[in-house]
Amino acid sequence: MMFEAYVDLLKDHPFEAAFLQFAVLGTLGEYVSCIVRRRRLGAGPWRLLGKMAAWGVLGLVIKMAFTGFDGFTRSVFGKLGLSTTAGVAGLAVPFALAKSAFTNTFFGPQMMLFHRWEDNLVMGQRGNYRGMRAAIGTLFWFWIPAHTVTFVLHSEDLQITLAAFWSVVLGLILGLAHRD
């Protein structure tokens, strides 16, 4: 009952939901990474709100990218005569993998640079793009597999929820990998 209400909310307000989910879960992922690394987030209440807004805007951009790359991948599969539904155990794994690869390869690097620009703006920094090579590397070892799982979900509405949740998972992984 409650889950159905949640899914209905996502269907009725997809962009608002994408904004809110990323504002909360994206910021939480960043915070988890800092806690695990025993570092401070470096944000007072206004900067924290700025970070949440930046993550929310990123959620909107990601929602649009998921929609656009779904159409792109369906078109490519259609031109190649491939099924978007056939796959392993009835799941559209080949389609999900292709959509994830296209999304993360063609869109991911620009999205990450945009997000760093947002973060620099919020934190009052100029030109801090340290660590971008490693961040872009996560597209291949984390985001392509994670989004393949995400895109196997038949409910497009829940894909953004899972994508936002993956931000928390990646924050934990990166925090553990870079503990002081």
Write up what this structure looks like:
The mean pLDDT is 91. By secondary structure, this protein is mainly alpha-helical. The chain has helices at 2-12, 14-36, 45-79, 93-123, 132-152, 156-177. Helix 2 (14-36) crosses helix 3, helix 3 packs antiparallel against helix 4 and helix 5 runs antiparallel to helix 6.
List the helices and strands and how they pair.
Layout: H1 2-12, H2 14-36, H3 45-79, H4 93-123, H5 132-152, H6 156-177
Q: What's the total number of strands? A: 0
Gyration radius, in Å = 17 Å
Order of helices and strands: HHHHHH
Bin the helical content.
over 70%
Mean pLDDT: 91
The fraction of residues assigned to DSSP E strands is under 5%
- Count of the domains: 1
Name the structural class.
mainly alpha
- Biggest pleated sheet: none
- Form type: globular
**Count of individual helical segments:** 6
Give the distance, in angstroms, between the N- and C-terminal Cα atoms.
44 Å
Spans of at least 5 consecutive residues whose pLDDT stays below 50 are none
